[in-house]
Design brief:
This protein has 222 residues and is of the alpha+beta class. It is built from five helices and twelve strands. It has a twelve-stranded mixed sheet. The longest helix is centred in the N-terminal third of the chain and has 14 residues. The radius of gyration is 17 Å and the shape is globular.
């Protein structure tokens, strides 16, 4: 399960780096239509979605899967609830972040901007406008007639970042799949389904009280 957390944090970092300007894309008008549709689709107070995560470490030929539910409240509040293979919860209120592993009675704590700021990771989902601000985006051919396929390129690549691909439903402009690749060939694929839009999630979902006796690890000091 710890590999899932590592890959999610990598996913968070990958999604948040770089810059985008639609005017630089040859199909700027079509791209702007897609981005505007996405921004309208995710403009509500919050939403909930089921996710299925597949992670592969190419060098070690290790692959893992996990699944659960993500709840988002704008701006920047998220709750990733992993149910399989092991229960785990990742929570942020936009300022702080907690990763709770009940089986280990362990809580990892850190600052949300280090992982989610400027559109990183779930910032892409909690404020879709970060896509337009933080990446160069191109529309690619798609073998799925029901989806647009977008390629996101960070403005300032790092070894942790190679390419990011989004599959966006043409009918609804919702993001149904995100695939991230780093320069080592590692891949994280997150498939999203069973959206519930136009929610107003309770504030209590995005705060966390550390249980008595829990082992606390401060990530910012690692």
């Amino acid at each position: 399960m710890r590999r899932f957390t590592g890959m999610l944090i990598m996913f968070i970092w990958i999604l948040g780096t770089g810059n985008l300007w639609a005017a630089q894309n040859p199909d700027a008008a079509g791209l702007d239509k897609i981005l505007t549709g996405m921004e309208a689709r995710y403009s509500g107070k919050g939403f909930s979605v089921v996710f299925f995560q597949e992670s592969m470490l190419k060098a070690m030929q290790i692959s893992d899967t996990a699944e659960g539910r993500l709840t988002v409240k704008r701006p920047g509040k998220m709750r990733w609830e992993y149910t399989l293979p092991d229960p785990q919860t990742i929570i942020t209120d936009g300022k702080s972040m907690w990763i709770y592993r009940p089986a280990d009675n362990q809580v990892m704590v850190g600052k949300a901007p280090s992982f989610f700021g400027d559109g990183k990771g779930a910032g892409f989902l909690s404020d879709i406008r970060q896509v337009r601000k933080n990446f160069r985006v191109a529309v690619l051919p798609s073998d799925d007639e029901s989806h647009y396929r977008l390629k996101l390129t960070p403005k300032q690549p790092t070894p942790d970042i190679a390419d990011i691909f989004l599959w966006v439903a043409k009918a609804s402009f919702q993001v149904d799949q995100v695939v991230t690749l780093n320069s080592y060939g590692d891949e994280t694929k997150i498939t999203l389904s069973k959206y519930q839009f136009n929610l107003d999630p309770k504030e209590s979902l995005f705060s966390f009280d550390i249980p008595d006796g829990a082992d606390v690890v401060e990530m910012d000091k690692q």
